[in-house]
Amino acid sequence: MKRVGHLFESVTAYDNLLAAFHLARRGCGNTASVCRFVFYLEPELLRLQAELCNETYRPGAYRFFSIHDPKEREIAVAPFRDRVVHHAIVRVLTPIYERVFIYDSYATRPGKGTHAAILRAQRFLRQRQFYLKTDIAQYFAHVDHDILLETVQRKIKDQRLLRLLNRILRNTPIPGKGLPIGNLTSQFLANVYLDPLDHEIKDRLGVRSYVRYMDDLVAFSDSSQELLDLRAAIAAFLSERLLLNLKPDATFLNRASHGLSFLGMRIFPHIIRVKPENRRRSLRRLRQRIAAWEQGRLDEDRMQQSIVSITYDEKANRRAILRFRRKAAQERARWKARSVSLSHLKCFLFGCMGLMAQADSEHLRRKLCAKTWF
């Protein structure tokens, strides 16, 4: 594998830091640290650039909080200036690793994502008779820093950039282990960490039908015994090379016709259903956004963005969409009763229409317009 050097200059270039600032600024809110950075933007970027070039930059302390949707996770929030550095690094490394990653790795990659992974899995379900789905136990908490840096060094030879990555990696509560959930660099490097496993499965073991989204792995075959042998090979590789283990209660071998639960969807060879718990969660999120808007905690622009993001999570087959729309119509009726502006309803309706673009459902669009617009 050809190694790449002279990257540190690209990371610390002012134009790259400015672009990284704009990426980090998205969705950050107006906290005191963000407002101060924005107000003194040029001096802050120049100071950050000088610290990086002089190698005096040190990451700040994380702020931790927990979420419980759908399960409890501890999220680490880095200081805003650290997030700018994270984006600056990932902007430079992404084009390099896009040439390294296999095609069927879908997490935190441009042009990929959950919906592409779901459609790819459905395609393999049509082609194969069996599938094996497995998951890595406490993946982010057990990533070994030394192994990760060795993996990065196989592609990157710029020592200054490697030292910067090392400083960011070591800024964790547990020495030598773990990636904080919430960092952009954590997501990117977590993908890099499992890249050797991807190539082991695709190149050495010769598995053609395989999809990975972060630590969720799905392989497809016409032989159930081949999949059982593959699981043993994956478990051995993870244990020996990456110091990881598979979840014993999260491995499923089943027929393709029975359906696959993957990334919040129930996928069948010719249909995709939204899992009921995800539909209920989306409705709950919608009610929370409406309450926040009514209390003045969300402005109109952010409210529209929230609605589009929530409905976009419900991208599935036409029947599942219609079931969700009937429930969501109750929320739209509440809006209308409170004299909500027409722009909100337009945003919601056009977002729903856009979801059905892939389903060739012009008659559903007309039905939706007839039901909810007039």
Task: Describe this entry's structure for a reader.
56% of the residues lie in helices and 11% in strands. It is of the alpha+beta class and 374 residues long. It has a domain at 275-372. The protein has a 4-stranded antiparallel sheet with strand order 4-5-3-6, with helices on both faces. It has a 3-stranded antiparallel sheet with strand order 7-8-9. β1 and β2 (72-77) form a beta hairpin. The longest helix is centred in the last third of the chain and has 20 residues, at 318-337. It is globular, with a radius of gyration of 23 Å. The protein starts with 7 loop residues before the first helix and ends with a helix. GO terms for molecular function: RNA-directed DNA polymerase activity. InterPro entries: DNA/RNA_pol_sf (IPR043502), GrpII_Intron_Splice-Mob/Def (IPR051083), RT_dom (IPR000477). Pfam families: RVT_1 (PF00078). Keywords: Nucleotidyltransferase, RNA-directed DNA polymerase, Transferase.
- Major sheet attributes: 4 strands, antiparallel
Average pLDDT, all residues: 83
Given helix and strand content, the structural type is: alpha+beta
Q: Work out the radius of gyration.
A: 23 Å
Percent of residues in helices comes to 55-70%
State the total count of DSSP E strands.
9
Q: What is the tally of helical segments?
A: 16
- Pick out the low-confidence regions: 312-321, 355-362
* Strand residue percentage: 5-15%
For this structure, the quaternary state is: single chain
Name the overall outline.
Answer: globular
The order of strands across the largest sheet is 4-5-3-6
Straight-line distance between termini: 61 Å
- Helix and strand string, N-terminal first? HHHHEEHHEHHHHEEHEEEEHHHHH
